[in-house]
Design a protein that fits this description.
The chain is an all-alpha fold. It has 11 helices and no strands. It is elongated. The two termini are 13 Å apart. Keywords: Cell membrane, Membrane, Transmembrane, Transmembrane helix, Transport.
C-alpha cells in the first residue's frame, strides 16, 4: 500500500466515485431522470446544484442517471470484447498453422475498415438499441484484444513450463486457463483499462452524433450534444457531462499508468 503513488490513489478515488454513481446513481439523484423542474438553462440554486438543462431538468440528477448508461454500456462492451478476443487469441497462438492464419486474416480484414465507419454502418442498418450498440462495439474492439492475446500467448507458449505441460498431455484449454492466462494477467488488466477508456469515449462520441444511447435514457455524450447551444450564451450546462467524461478517462489512465510502471520495474527494485 505504501508503494502506491499519489496519482494512482487519485485515479482509484475517481474510479470509486464513478462506480458508486454506476451502482447507486438513481438512488442518489435528488430528482427523476425526466422531471421538468424549471425553465431551460436555469442557473444553479441551493436545490439544483448544477442548474437545469435545455428542457428544464436537473443536471445533477441527469448526470447521476447517465452514469449507468455511459459507464454501464462501456463496461459491458469491454467485458464482451475480452470474452471474445482472449480465448480466440490464445487458441490461435497455441494451435498455429491454418487456425492462426484464418483467425488472423479475419481480424485483419475487420480492422482494415476504421472502427467509426464500421460502427456507423452497422448502427444505421440495425438501429441503435442497447443490445446492438453493445455487441457492435464489443465485436469491433475484440479484434484489438485478439491481437494482444495472440502475441502474449505466443511468448508464453514457448516457455519451459508450457512445454512441460504439453509433455504431460495437457490440452489447449487447460494450458490457456492454467498457464497462459495467469502469466498474462498483468498486461491484460492494463489493456482492459485502456480498452475501457477507448470504448467509453467511443460511446460518448456515438451519442454525440446521435447514434449511441438513445432517449429517454440519459448519457453523458448525449447530454453534451443536447446542451451544446448553452456554450453560445456562456452557460456551463454542456461542460458538466463533458467534465464527467474527461475525469473518468483521466482516472482510469492514472491507474493503468501505475500498473504498467509496476510491471516494468526491475525485480530487485520491486522488492
Amino acid at each position: 500500500m505504501k508503494r502506491i503513488p499519489l496519482t494512482a490513489w487519485i485515479g482509484l478515488a475517481i474510479i470509486a466515485v464513478n462506480l458508486a454513481a454506476l451502482v447507486f446513481g438513481p438512488l442518489l439523484a435528488p430528482y427523476g431522470e425526466e422531471d421538468i423542474l424549471g425553465g431551460p438553462f436555469d442557473p444553479a440554486t441551493a436545490l439544483n446544484w448544477l442548474g437545469m438543462d435545455q428542457n428544464g431538468r436537473d443536471m445533477l440528477s441527469r448526470i447521476l442517471y447517465g452514469a449507468q448508461m455511459s459507464i454501464g454500456v462501456s463496461l459491458a462492451a469491454s467485458l464482451i470484447s475480452f470474452s471474445i478476443g482472449l480465448p480466440l487469441g490464445f487458441f490461435a497462438a497455441l494451435r498455429g498453422g491454418w487456425v492462426d492464419t484464418v483467425l488472423s486474416r479475419l481480424v485483419d480484414t475487420i480492422m482494415c475498415v476504421p472502427v467509426l465507419i464500421s460502427a456507423l454502418v452497422v448502427l444505421q442498418a440495425l438501429g441503435s438499441s442497447l443490445p446492438v450498440l453493445i455487441l457492435t462495439i464489443a465485436i469491433l474492439d475484440s479484434t484489438r484484444v485478439f491481437r494482444l492475446a495472440r502475441i502474449l500467448g505466443q511468448g508464453i507458449n514457448v516457455m519451459e513450463y508450457a512445454e512441460a505441460a504439453r509433455l504431460r498431455g495437457e490440452g489447449s484449454w487447460w494450458l490457456i486457463r492454467k498457464e497462459i492466462l495467469p502469466n498474462a494477467a498483468a498486461p491484460l488488466i492494463a489493456e482492459f483499462g485502456m480498452r475501457f477508456c477507448f470504448t467509453f469515449l467511443f460511446v460518448a462520441g456515438l451519442s454525440f452524433l446521435g447514434l449511441g444511447i438513445q432517449p429517454p435514457y440519459a448519457d453523458w455524450g448525449g447530454m453534451v450534444k443536447d446542451n451544446q447551444q448553452g456554450i453560445l450564451y456562456g452557460l456551463y450546462a454542456p461542460l458538466y457531462p463533458a467534465a464527467a467524461i474527461a475525469l473518468l478517462t483521466i482516472g482510469v489512465n492514472l491507474v493503468v499508468d501505475w500498473l504498467l510502471a509496476g510491471r516494468s520495474r526491475p525485480q530487485g527494485e520491486a522488492r
